[in-house]
Batch of 3 targets.
Target 1
Amino acid sequence: AQRVTQPEKLLSVFKGAPVELKCNYSYSGSPELFWYVQYSRQRLQLLLRHISRESIKGFTADLNKGETSFHLKKPFAQEEDSAMYYCALGLGDSWGKLQFGAGTQVVVTP
Amino acid sequence: EAQVTQNPRYLITVTGKKLTVTCSQNMNHEYMSWYRQDPGLGLRQIYYSMNVEVTDKGDVPEGYKVSRKEKRNFPLILESPSPNQTSLYFCASRKVGVNEQYFGPGTRLTVT
């Protein structure tokens, strides 16, 4: 069965320090991975997708099929990065849904 | 402005009193979904719809109903709400062939 695991419920980092949010998945098909972010009192919004291999707000994520991981990284955390981050697995059109991890709350302190 | 809207944003109700949460999107998306967000559990899909009159159960459909009579609207119906349905609910839509989902602002429901 498909599953997304985010092992850290809470990550507390200092401003300027590197931050890495872990995400592991299990899926027998060809995975499509995403990172969504939810700032306080706001809706979820797409941060990154593995297909585009882009860097948004200084964040990057690389899909490692061997380790079935899609960790999110930023070399220098900023206070505005404080938010809830969700890793999500796209299951294709026949399913019509995303499988979300439990989320990681990031708190960046000055 | 392209968006997904939900109403109401906040709702406090009592056990057993039927309620409907509306969801509307103006992007002509085929797919629409409902999720509930609970601490420690992330987002779990309740129901989804692949087009008008085509709906299917997600991971946690018990106690919920949906309908898709028009492409833009996908209401979530709780016929007899119970306290375990207290949660934050999100509607989302996406276009066929594109896995990116657009989320509504959320509806915080409390059932006492």
Target 2
Amino acid sequence: DTAVSQTPKYLVTQMGNDKSIKCEQNLGHDTMYWYKQDSKKFLKIMFSYNNKELIINETVPNRFSPKSPDKAHLNLHINSLELGDSAVYFCASSQGNQPYNEQFFGPGTRLTVL
Amino acid sequence: AQSVSQHNHHVILSEAASLELGCNYSYGGTVNLFWYVQYPGQHLQLLLKYFSGDPLVKGIKGFEAEFIKSKFSFNLRKPSVQWSDTAEYFCAVSATGGATNKLIFGTGTLLAVQP
């Protein structure tokens, strides 16, 4: 059983398009995250939701809009895609949002903007 | 602001060699420390973590790490590596007392183990 799943696994699109990445976790966790991993493998947090409420919003362009319809899902919508958005996006989840709560990661979505 | 440094970007070892990957963090308060591993084509998995207590923590697959507070370090070790340990290793830190569970990652160390 997949604990944290993401769709799609690969996404290739043109500049200026709008796209969404979906994340679902079946662990019963109440906190979910989006991370971006750039071409140099550097991982940086973008957003976090706890019980469907936004609790972390790093300085991410407002073209990125997360949506959490329920505790098990956290989707990422990106408007007006730019070349610099090309990266691997990882979703993660944890039970609780304290620093000692282990985060479980999804397989990643590789986004390529042409 | 918190930051994490991994000075070894790429390490090549032969099987059975010993491994030590460096990790230093920058933060004045109490921290929680993690090592994650990303095998080729797979997602990040937790290797081990330190919150408090014994500074020498043991993780999965024979890995261990030692928290040295005076050096702001949390180096990862394994006495004898295997070909299957080939992967990218990430050190991460989160601050105790913070309102959120924000992991700050290092830039990763790519380990290649030659058979």
Target 3
Amino acid sequence: DAKTTQPPSMDCAEGRAANLPCNHSTISGNEYVYWYRQIHSQGPQYIIHGLKNNETNEMASLIITEDRKSSTLILPHATLRDTAVYYCIVRVGSSGSARQLTFGSGTQLTVLP
Amino acid sequence: EAQVTQNPRYLITVTGKKLTVTCSQNMNHEYMSWYRQDPGLGLRQIYYSMNVEVTDKGDVPEGYKVSRKEKRNFPLILESPSPNQTSLYFCASSPGTGGRQPQHFGDGTRLSIL
């Protein structure tokens, strides 16, 4: 699986959009970009994933650059409960793979009141 | 509510006393997995199961056993726990094994082995 690079920490004001970047310059054509978050030692929570098109769900939006070498997770209206470590992961999408998720260091997002 | 349930959530025990951490999911998922999380080391996979009666080792299987006799349950067994197994443990499940299947995690079990 391709390696990812994320900033170690970011702050965001409550109610504003939080934009979390991720670099994955060695991503290959069959690898998906996943985002998870972990709130203070709770189980990691799936947020969103995508291959090459931008994706949106009830939690967030995922913007993937055209060359797929980087992506941005957007939380449109951050709340204090969004304070967590956010992990960007790239993973092969083929079926039959039992590959684990490789969590790096992630970005500690702190939403400030 | 779709969920992965782990028990116990917290356990303090002594070296050598066998223990089992249970994991159950109610989503009819085929794939289940156990991870441990330690400071500075991230999440590391212990064992995984692709379906009933199919299990395989992850990156750090030493000292652990698992079984998958039913689809919904995937217990983690420490036959003779040691202090280096003190950690935060997570069970996860997903509908299949493909990379397009997001994993759902339990709330974790914090084990302290004295």
